[in-house]
Amino acid sequence: MGKFATLFLVISLCVTLAEGLSIVGHSQRCLCDGKLYNLIPSRNIRKVEMFPQTPRCYNVEIVITMKTGKRWCLNPKAQRVRAVLGKFSMKRDFKHNY
């Protein structure tokens, strides 16, 4: 095999591996890969954060931090979640991560 053919195969292999890793790593960039909650008592919420879609994660993500320090992912399509967001958007502890 010539030098050109060997170089071509090595470059092709590197490109293929790089593309495969970006597809595999896609879900690792989302914060909310597990269960999405539809309702959390608002009196226990310390902070609400909203993360928009990105090239690595195609989901809009809403993450709340409870007073106990636990973090929960909320379902952005749930009507009750929208009500909680409306309540917190008037306060300073609502953070858009745009």
UniProtKB/TrEMBL annotation:
Residues 1-20 form the signal peptide. GO terms for biological process: defense response; immune response. Keywords: Cytokine, Signal. GO terms for cellular component: extracellular space. CDD domains: Chemokine_CXC. The keyword Signal applies. Coiled coil: none annotated. It comes from Microcaecilia unicolor. Residues 27-88 form the Chemokine interleukin-8-like domain. This is C-X-C motif chemokine 11-1-like. It comes from the Eukaryota. One of its GO terms (molecular function) is chemokine activity. The gene is LOC115462508. Belongs to the intercrine alpha (chemokine CxC) family.
